[in-house]
Write the structure tokens for this entry.
Amino acid sequence: MGVPTRSRLLPDADAEYLDSKIRRFSEKVVGGWVHIIIHDFPLPGVYTPGSCDLLVRLPAGYPNASPDMFWTRPDVRLATGNWPTTADVRESFDGESWQRWSRHFPPNGWRPGVDTLQTFLMTIRQELAKGL
């Protein structure tokens, strides 16, 4: 945590994006996956709480292999108190419990050599904006 520093785990474009656009993040390798945690990730008003930690897991072979789904902590609910659609399962990563959002992106498929962490985060933001 703390001040972001140049990632040694990610392609240059992803490291530069994190360094320039994301205020607080951490990263580590867990079980062969690169875990990127974006701290204080803002959520649309339809959710409670208003922000969370967002976990993105990048598989071996990334960026040629596509990331899939995302995770949050603490638990995120709709303002109505209901669980968001397909986001009611918990999974443990590196000893922490995370809420899994079963979303599969992007609809047109991952484009190796084109799509990046920035693309994936944009897709997550678009999905969250639906308020489902």
Summary: The chain has one domain: 12-129. The first helix runs from residue 12 to 21. The longest strand covers residues 33-42. Helices lie at 12-21, 117-129.
